[in-house]
Structures are given as structure tokens and as C-alpha cells.
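dude i think i finally got it to work??
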Amino acid sequence: MAETRDIIVTGGEDGERLDRFLARALSPLSRTQMKRLIEAGHVSLAGAATTDPAAKTHPGQHFIIVLPEPEPDKPEAQAMDLVIPYEDEHLLVIDKPAGLVVHPAPGNPDRTLVNALIAHCGDTLAGIGGVKRPGIVHRIDKDTSGLMVVAKTDLAHRALTDDFAAHRIERAYRAVVWGVPPTSGEIEGAIGRNPRDRKKMALVTRGGKAALTRFRRLEAFGTTASLIECRLATGRTHQIRVHLAALGFPLIGDPVYGRKRGPKIFTRQALHAFLLGFKHPATGEALRFTSELPNDMKQLLDRLRA
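look at this
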């Protein structure tokens, strides 16, 4: 069961970072663990969640902390129907549906892709890339659909991880955005945590990681919206979503970086990882896979064309 703790700030703790103050008060929790709890919304003040670990404390503040029950040592096997365009003894390629979380995390402890992979691969996946995320080399967001590669051996995991780090993996996405961007272009800008909302990413001038997205317009629907293709030169968290929003062409349906006003015509960010290419880590063979747009995005395009 989850445990609730009440902590009140005294005069001697005025002006201290919230994560440092609560970690000391709730020892043996580390500051890193407490930071994650704060960002996940497990700490509240005056009835509202406070999600900034760097917030300063003030005397008399009354914080309520909900400590979630311990997670199991490793994810359990949970069978699901998976679309697998390719599989051998070294790796498999998954066509992930929208709505499926890649690995267990706060708020999504099970029914993830990792749980399905453990059921599909059995003991052969154990320990590949870590206990919590076995086989996972890269991720795509819960509500983004499309292609992912998963390692089944340590050799494949190391080689693919190195290829992703060196930007040797070919990845391309189809996206539907509000507005009509130029026929092609590049978006470059470092991405890091949004200083005003730590749950979001943003273009930042300090502390971020360099990011480059190349795009080309495939189809325009009057002046309302466009279908575009994006290719990643880097792979940062929410990179396409952040870059396109910063350029003024947010993804249709994006609940975090999209338009706050206007018609709600799609229930998730309209983003699909349609192309994935890489060198096979064991054979050296060049592999390249494509995935059709899912039905919900096809229906969205039909509506815009009409």
C-alpha cells in the first residue's frame, strides 16, 4: 500500500531546495529519488501538487508526500498481441500501436511493451540492457505509433546503442501539423527541461542537449494543416514535438505542446515512426523497414482533405 507522510517546514529550513529538504526529512530516500517523486506529482502543498524540485521552502509550509508502494524487482510477463515485422535470434522490430507505454514507470507499472516482450521472448531477454528495461534500445512516446528495434542479446544491445549514439540509425516520422510550414527546412535548438514546468521539454539556452530535426512538407490542406516528414539527426526527448511547436507548427492533437484553443479533431499527437533503418549488429546486413500510417491518422487526413 502507498504510504502518506506529512512534513512541516520550520524556521531553520527557510529557503532550502524542496527536494533536498524532503530527502533529509524522509531519510533514507535520496535526493534523486525525492526529485522523481516531486516531478511525478507525489508531493502536494495546500491541496495542489508541487512539481518543481528546486522550489524554495518557507516556514510553516505543510507538505503531504505520497510514497508509492515498492515496485517489483523486475517486470512480469504479460502476453499481448504484437505486430512484429522482423525477428531473429538477435533482435526484433516492433510496430508499436499508439497508447502503449514502452517500459514500466510511475503511473504505468505494467501492461507495457516490456511486459509483452518478456512474455514473447521468455528467459532469453533477461538482463539484456538492464532489469527494468530489458531489450530496450530506444523509445517512442506512449501516444506515438510506429517502428522500434529491440535487442535480444547483449551483443545486439551494445551495437545498436552505439549506433543510436553515433546517429547511424535512419529514422523518419510522418506528422500532421497545424498550419503550412515551408516546403523543407531544418530546426536546430538545444532541448532540456522547461524551467517553468519540469514535466515538459523546451528549447533552452543553457543545460540542454543539441538537437536537429529536418523536415519536408508532403501535402498541405489549404492553410489549415499539413502532412510532413521529419528525420532525426539527434534523438532527444519529445524532439519533434518541441521543435515543431517552437517553429509555430505544433502537432495536431498534442496535449502538451499543441494548441490550447481551437477544434479538437484528434485524440493524440499525430505522429507515426514510419521508417527505421540500421545495420544488423551480427551480420552487418543493411535492414530497412517501413510502416503504413495507422487508421486513425488515415482518417484524420481524409477529414482534412474533405
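Helices lie at 18-25, 31-39, 113-121, 154-165, 239-247, 295-305.
im so relieved honestly
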